[in-house]
Design goal:
With 167 residues, this protein is of the alpha+beta class. Helix content is 25%, strand content 30%. The strands form three sheets. The chain has a five-stranded mixed sheet with strand order 6-3-4-7-10. A four-stranded antiparallel sheet has the order 1-2-9-8.
């Protein structure tokens, strides 16, 4: 089972947890031992925390008409690039170059958080997040997740909600 701790009482942390603390948003940190051999960061997180994969969301960075956009979708599904482009008023979307995603967000692949990014990017939160009281997203490094209300995530990131995931 994942170790849980309330991060509000502790200073520092990742840029994501610092942003949450500064905003006064309630959240819970889930830490687990990351296995570099696991084929999926998101599925690994769900398994390690004992949380349904439809409540654990991955942060993906895509290029929509030449601009980087963040999509937050359940780890149980995949990103519908056409739906993402439509959600932000674009025509064409493709997954971003991993190096560009890391450089722009300030996080490493597998640990990209939608919160506390180096450069704030347009963000789309899959509409399925609204079905849950809380969801888990990366806290900014592999082996660390934050659990928070989807509405709080949307407010802090300026995310729009749209159906951008496929099963």
């Amino acid at each position: 089972m994942a170790k849980k701790q309330k991060k509000q009482q502790q200073p520092g942390g990742t840029p994501a947890t610092v942003a949450l603390t500064a905003a006064g948003v309630p959240y819970t940190v889930h830490a687990y031992e990351h296995d570099p051999a696991h084929p999926s960061y998101g599925e690994e997180a769900a398994e390690a925390m004992g949380v349904s994969p439809d409540r654990v969301f991955k942060t993906l960075v895509a290029d929509v008409d030449g601009a980087l956009v963040v999509a937050v979708v359940p780890v149980a599904g995949s990103l519908d690039l056409k739906a993402l482009a439509t959600a932000v008023g674009g025509k064409r979307a493709a997954m971003a170059d991993p190096a560009a995603a890391e450089r722009t967000t300030g996080y490493v692949r597998g640990g990209i958080s939608p919160l506390g990014q180096r450069k704030k990017l347009r963000t789309v939160l899959d509409a399925s997040a609204g079905r849950h009281a809380t969801i888990c997203v990366s806290a900014g490094r592999r082996g660390l997740e934050v659990e928070l209300a989807p509405a709080d995530l949307a407010t802090l990131t300026g995310a729009v909600s749209a159906p951008v995931a496929r099963a």
